Amino acid sequence: MNTDFLTDLGRGLLRLVVALILTFTWLARASAADTEYKLVRVETAGQALRVRLPLTDVAGKVRPKERTPDGYGEPLAPTKTVLGEKHFLEWQIGYDTREADAPNVVKAIQFVRKGETKFGAELSKMLVDALRLGVISTNDLLRERDRLAKLAEATLEEREGITTEKTPLDAKGGLPDGFTRWTQKVPQFLRETEHGWIQIQLKPRQRAVGNQAMVYVCIPMKSVLTADGKPRAPGPAKTKETVFYEFSRANAGFLLDIVRAFAIASKQHNEDIGQILGKILESKTPSP
Ligand code: ADE
Fold first, then answer.
1. Statement: the pTM of the whole predicted model exceeds 0.70
2. What average pLDDT is seen over the chain?
3. 92 Cβ closer than 6 Å to some ligand 1 atom
4. Ligand 1 within 6 A of 268 CB?
């Protein structure tokens, strides 16, 4: 038996295993860094609530866009565009999650929706932190909660619809093979403020019938900050760049506008927000 050959084989195998382990470790780290960068992070900065938003995750929950008159905005390539006055971030803000250990979770806010346990997250954490910092007050939340029932009477998802109309052909002439032309009208709702705007869009439900009302917070690029708290100068995005938006007493109304947008978006959102505000207020109000 050639023992030298077996020793060489053993060494070769060992090297291969080490190389594989190192490659997997590197891949896992790179993937974790990528996931971390894409997260919206709710933090505090002194007396303000600070939200970290990814700038280049074009298919994610925070998308950079160019402003258009219809309010929808045009998607863009952030690293190839000088992001400035004409641009904004469209943030599909969330308020809950199924996972108790997800980022930005407030475990104390727990509620049941359609038999499933939900935990408050993101907007819920923003409200909890904003209350703790004095950006908003218990009275603000009480007022919002008291408004919910009135807003629930005419929620957009239940009241509005997407319509399809037969539309005459333009001067270009007819369509071949007996085709006719139909156009869909999709209503969308915009609440403009001096700080940014909130959009409610109706979208057909995935894997179900009917429409769902989606809420988006739109933040002008001119209002976002860099990590050192200074306004971000116009310029293309760097790879995996993150930016910051702060809520303080000066724009606390914008935070409450988001709450109200969910309250008018659909009955389900209205109910969920009621549960979340209820839990926050419960923890603030001393029991008798
Ligand atoms: N549920 C949680 N966040 C939402 C959002 N931004 N739009 C619609 N439904 C949601």
1. yes
2. 92
3. yes
4. no
